[in-house]
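Appendix B, example 12.
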Amino acid sequence: MDTVLRIFIIYVLLVAGLRVLGKREFGQLSPLELITLLMIPEVVSQSLTHQDPSLINAIVGVTTLFSLVFVTSLLTHRFKRLEEVISDKPSVLVEHGKFIEQNMNKERLSPEEIYAVMHKSGLYELRQVRWAVLETDGEIAIIPEEETSQPEATADEMKGA
């Protein structure tokens, strides 16, 4: 019964902590939030397996991790310079139908990866892409070129052709 109680306490603590961090999908987590989620099992594992007789270390550890993530998000929201240091800026990968190889090499992305995202957006030729941007969350955003509309030919022009 002791194990069930320990798991229940850790579960309630994790649910409360995740509530405080905000409503985001896992795909939208910042690198710091992802690192925190990966550290939690290590912090609580000893308390759950009775290697550490008290739950206090697990509670303090998880609370500290959530507090650090919360404070970091507040500071980066308040101080844009800190946000620039902690998180990266978006990177332009395609500009008006041309790959920007320097940025693609920096981000270690292949043309095939960009084509795959283009295809999901309904675009099949690179010239159809105005911008392809690697966003800070790791997603590639595709902005298509605006289609130039040709004036429709009149019936007289079609007869003369």
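The chain has two domains: 2-86, 91-144. The mean pLDDT is 82.
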